[in-house]
Amino acid sequence: MILYTMMPHELVYQAEGQEFDRQRVIDHNGVPLLVEMVEGSDCRVLQIMSSDPNDFLNETLTPGTKITLS
Which domain of life is it from (predicted)? Predict the structure, then answer.
C-alpha cells in the first residue's frame, strides 16, 4: 500500500505510548496545523499542513508559536 501524504511517517504509523500521543492535527481559523499539546488547551505549532501559500506568510502560525484552543 502506498500513502501519498504530507504527514510525517511517525504520525501516520504511531506506536502506542510514544511522545506522538501529544501531537494532533487541528483546524485553527481554517488552517490545518500539526500541533503539540503542552498543557490544558495550550499547544505549540509544529507544522503548517495547508496547501495555501498565504497561510505560510501568517506570522501568528509560524512553527514554535504557542496558541490556545477555544
Answer: Bacteria
